[in-house]
Q: What sequence folds into this?
């Protein structure tokens, strides 16, 4: 069964498109956090960003830069949050990779709910080593 986003891209269910291209589309989120909340969605359906084809990933940067500029221009927002919920434990509800672009204004009362904590130099060093090994 194709994802809800694949069905929107295929025209099987309605979507309010902002732009379409060979590998990415953007449409309005149906339950926006703020007016102008847009989803940037790859045409290739895969649950995680890391599963997307190289050519899709290559197009992401230019699409994202242009779309954040369009959201700023259309809404007048001075800032945006670009959010990726990459996996259900991170809050991903639709298992088709996507990015949220959310307009932000000073004093808008929104918050992104992640909490930071202090970390020791030793634990940062150990994690740096693990990540460097995973990167290789
Ligand atoms: P996530 O939790 O990151 O998977 O976000 C999924 C997003 O998809 C939510 O913000 C939903 O409001 C949005 N959404 C779900 N169904 C639709 C739809 N038919 N059209 C547009 N946006 C949708």
A:
């Amino acid at each position: 069964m194709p994802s809800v986003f694949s069905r929107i891209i295929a025209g099987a269910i309605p979507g309010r498109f902002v732009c379409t291209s060979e590998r990415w589309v953007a449409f309005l989120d149906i339950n926006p956090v703020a007016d102008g909340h847009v989803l940037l969605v790859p045409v290739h359906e895969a649950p995680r960003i890391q599963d997307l084809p190289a050519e899709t990933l290559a197009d992401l940067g230019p699409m994202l830069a242009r779309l954040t500029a369009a959201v700023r221009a259309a809404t007048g927002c001075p800032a945006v949050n670009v959010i990726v919920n990459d996996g259900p434990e991170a809050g991903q509800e639709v298992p088709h990779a996507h990015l949220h672009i959310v307009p932000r204004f000073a004093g808008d009362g929104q918050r992104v709910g992640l909490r930071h904590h202090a970390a020791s130099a030793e634990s940062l060093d150990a994690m740096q080593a693990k990540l460097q090994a995973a990167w290789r």
